[in-house]
TrEMBL record:
Keywords: Signal. This is PorT family protein. It comes from Paraflavisolibacter caeni. Residues 1-23 form the signal peptide. Pfam families: OMP_b-brl_2 (PF13568). It comes from the Bacteria. Residues 24-193 form the Outer membrane protein beta-barrel domain.
Length: 229
């Protein structure tokens, strides 16, 4: 099973390398803090949740598509998690648990479209699209009365947590002529990370701010300022 996850990561990196070989493609690095939580339901009833702090860091691209529209895939590491208090029991983590605090290390591949709001070298932009994340590992801590606190690795299988989920993503940011970028991002989970029958429905929610820098700017992007003669 681990070979499958490794192949997924290697395949994503190879695709990035292939895109980066084209002269018009801009390749950049991104990273920043984020706040993560989850929409958590047991038998259709919302459970109280709280946020945790995380981080993301990785690679982004900007591939010319049409006019101000670009294909902007991204591949990045994401540290996420959530805290939840249960009104009723459910597995996972345990029918007897009264709460849960999780932390997950994931890698995500995003297929995004970017629209530049101006043709100027310094401009605002918006992005939107979908992402698939692969949970590499996770920890959970929950209380079980009267036995106490349980600390353990999260279990991933067809009858426990699922390793793969999906989300819709929206970005709004600003890009400078020099290649610096800053953007706010939001990810809305659309795939539950629980595989257990009759278990909870868990959808990730993530918001954050990231900085980035294009390592290679597109040489065909023209400076629109007046050229002195």
């Amino acid at each position: 099973m681990r070979n499958i996850y490794l192949k997924t990561i290697v395949t994503s990196l190879c695709l990035f390398s292939a895109f980066a070989s084209f002269s018009q493609v801009e390749l950049g690095i991104i990273g920043g803090p984020q706040i993560t939580s989850a929409k958590y339901k047991i038998e259709g009833e919302d459970q109280p949740t709280d946020h945790k702090y995380g981080v993301q860091a990785g690679l982004t691209m900007k591939v010319p598509f049409e006019n101000n529209l670009y294909f902007a895939p991204a591949f990045y590491y994401s540290l996420k998690g959530y805290k939840v208090t249960f009104n009723k029991g459910a597995f996972p983590p345990s029918d007897e648990a009264i709460n849960n605090d999780t932390k997950m290390h994931t890698v995500e591949t995003a297929a995004l479209l970017q629209y530049d709001l101006s043709k100027n070298p310094n401009h605002f932009f918006i992005k939107g699209g979908f992402a698939v994340d692969l949970i590499i590992s996770g920890k959970e801590q929950f209380d079980v009365l009267p036995r106490g606190t349980v600390n353990r690795n999260m279990k991933f299988s067809f009858g426990d947590y699922g390793r793969i989920t999906a989300s819709t993503n929206v970005h709004f940011g600003y890009e400078t002529k020099s290649g610096l970028i800053i953007f706010a991002h939001y990810a809305h989970g659309i795939g539950s990370m629980n595989n257990a029958d009759y278990g909870p429905r868990i959808f990730n929610r993530i918001a954050g701010i990231s900085l980035g820098y294009f390592l290679r700017k597109n040489p065909n992007v023209l400076d629109t300022k007046v050229i002195d003669k």
